[in-house]
């Protein structure tokens, strides 16, 4: 008798555990009661934006990354400057580069009509990043939800925590580790560069003067470098755009890793995954060989990145407009 009661207790714990909120943690069904259509709304607006501009998928995926690395996944990146807030949009990694803010605004306003004051901008970023990955042919995953929005921004955090394309391997790995991410996450998430664009200014150094000796980066295929130089001159053309994956620029796949093996990674931060560390080089080779293993790890690492110090429970707020804090 006692045994069967224990069994029933255990069973109900197991059955209901996924639905009850463990304090401070996120879970996929968070809006099931309060805004059940949130997934459809996000998906339809992201799909519409992607149909109009295929690059938008990449831009939305990157926004979630640049949000999570600064004060956690709290939509701090979405705040405009006002009062004491200095917008992260002005930071080095974001200025003239981060995009997709209008799409997030459109999603937010559609959701506010359906369920006012319920869904955070931080969760909209996480859902948009997942939907963008799926739309471009990448893996799907259930997005843990329940983040709340910050009351402030950190331009210093944006400048310091987000890796720069000419950072050393050790610096980049350290920046990931400071956010609780490891070398496996670093390589898998860098696979995001299978879609989207980079400006000339982000990799020019590799084309002309990689190590201060007036020479191009020797880990960059010399024919590919010559082609890039025609559109990315020594000076000027800073904003000229180049696809990060020249083989399948709008398709989420493992060609990014295959390109690295051919010395045709666009950014220095891409190529050093192969050239500066044995563990990451082996991961690059594995993902180049096995798209399925890349996809599986990418999904896991995205969930891990999405869990970086979220605001939950009564912390922060649910913004009415993603660009400004509530009055
Ligand atoms: C590992 C360190 C990383 C560095 C140094 C880095 C750096 C960069 C740079 C320099 C660009 C081009 C920006 C421009 O010139 O406008 C870029 C684009 C991009 N990054 Fe990263 N990134 C890193 C990791 C990530 C991660 C973890 C993600 C997502 C999870 C990501 C997603 C993207 C996407 C999708 C684009 C294209 C954006 C667009 O076309 O609008 N990156 N990244
Ligand atoms: C990296 O790029 C920045 C911006 O272009 C530049 O100021 C800095 O000197 C570069 N760092 C190295 C180590 O080359
Ligand atoms: C390359 O960079 C170094 C150090 O940043 C600088 O002193 C040198 O003049 C540069 N050379 C060329 C050819 O631009």
Automatic annotation (TrEMBL):
Heme b binds at residue 193. GO terms for cellular component: extracellular region. It is found in: Secreted. Ca(2+) 2 binds at residues 194, 245, 248, 253. The keyword tRNA-binding does not apply. The record marks 62 as: Transition state stabilizer. PROSITE patterns: PEROXIDASE_1 (PS00435), PEROXIDASE_2 (PS00436), PEROXIDASE_4 (PS50873). Binds 1 heme b (iron(II)-protoporphyrin IX) group per subunit. It is an enzyme of class 1 (oxidoreductase). Substrate binds at residue 163. SUPFAM superfamilies: Heme-dependent peroxidases. Its cofactor is heme b; Ca(2+). Transmembrane segments: none annotated. One of its GO terms (molecular function) is heme binding. InterPro entries: Haem_peroxidase, Haem_peroxidase_sf, Peroxidase_pln, Peroxidases_AS, Peroxidases_heam-ligand_BS, Secretory_peroxidase. Residues 1-24 form the signal peptide. PANTHER family: PEROXIDASE 72, PEROXIDASE 72-RELATED. Removal of H(2)O(2), oxidation of toxic reductants, biosynthesis and degradation of lignin, suberization, auxin catabolism, response to environmental stresses such as wounding, pathogen attack and oxidative stress. These functions might be dependent on each isozyme/isoform in each plant tissue. This is Peroxidase. It comes from Lupinus angustifolius.
